[in-house]
Amino acid sequence: MLHTDLLAQGAVAAAALPQAADAAPTASTPQLVIAAVAGIAVIIVLIVWLKMHPFLALVLGSGVLAVTAGIGLTDTFTSFSAGLGSTVAGVGVLIALGAIIGKLLIDSGGADRIVDTILDRTPAKRLPWAMALIAFVVGIPLFFEVGVVLLIPVVMIVARRMRTNPVLVGIPALAGLSALHGLVPPHPGPLLAIEALGADLGITLGLGLLVAVPTVIVAGPLLAVPLTRWVRLAPPVSILGMSDDAGLPNATAGLRKPTFGMSVLVVLLPVLLMLARSVVEIAGATETGYGTVLEFLGEPLVALLLTALFALFAFGTAVGRTRQQLGDLVGSSFAPIAGILLIVGAGGGFKQTLVDSGVGEVIASGIADAGITPLLAGWLVAALIRIATGSATVATITAAGIMAPLATGLEPTHAALLVLAIGAGSVFLSHVNDAGFWLVKEYFGMTVGQTFKTWTLMESVLSVVALLVVLLLGAVV
192 exposed, middle or buried (CB, 10 Å; 0-12, 13-18, 19+)? Predict the structure, then answer.
């Protein structure tokens, strides 16, 4: 039933779409397909072989796509500029607010408080599950790379204290971080896909958490057990050259640590606000007094802004920081996300070029005619680009642009599931062209072969399990 319904909706959407922009050419279908292939191929070649920054690769790929599709030279970057602007306006502010919350969480010791509290109350046999839980909670507001840097030293300390293979506790933590990175806003990939596909953020957030829970369980604690047999690592004796726990950097000297409850509240506050908004909208109670308030508070920008302001109090003045220190801390949170914002913006420009040139409509119509359900098609496109480029963000951006015409005719829940299917595909088969592959390899001190047997396998299992859960949800909602 799901397959038939989604194909019908997708076919209607593809047929009903108007020509996107005045700059759209009257090119033939073969020319538009060649344009899409050429644009994506340029991006892949520039990133993989020439090691060009994804921002520049996306700009050049958009130009090649536009020219090949027959758009005039003077209008080559018109759609790109419009897409970049709208994407940064819609997604960039949310990423910046998320960066503020994450920076405050880390530097205040709030993240440490969550980790320490959970570990202190967990029996040794349950520590892999505890690490997955920690990664799941802490990973909500943190970018993947930040989460890895934060949690891997903790993983090594736990493995050292347990005198066990670090894979046993490391894989669950990595699974939690990776699942949140690919499936749950306010991470950049899901946010960009939501923007491109016109999905509802609250619904996507709720379904994303629903998909992430069983996915992390299977790809984390359960998968870690056989992986420890296949890759036998000795308990760590040092952490990147630091011989003891005291060697870890301490950014909270002289400050009071926030409580566990306060730390968790800051992490979950935007999630709760956005979910409450979705519940009110689904229940049709937006016209009531409380419904109007919850709808406003659950607006993504409002929810993250309120959380950032609350975090300034909870992780700032409440623990002894001065206003000047808080200002400096907020300012320092923006530098690490500059590259992410540029890539996300350029991705939005590439997506808009796909749409305005007519390429997206042609590909969407082809998918509908081929009898492939949009959920599976979105996963396949994202997975192929992920394998080729090594970038989950580029995979999400490109797949969302290609699938955007099909999303127009989908129900809100199915549009959200399409976002999640693309997100699942974007983490598939991480290998040597992915920076995360080398980050994990170096932290764990593994060989390339061992990294393939652990990290790469975990990412692939996580991607496939997430897809299966998405397809299951699509069949019942």
Answer: buried
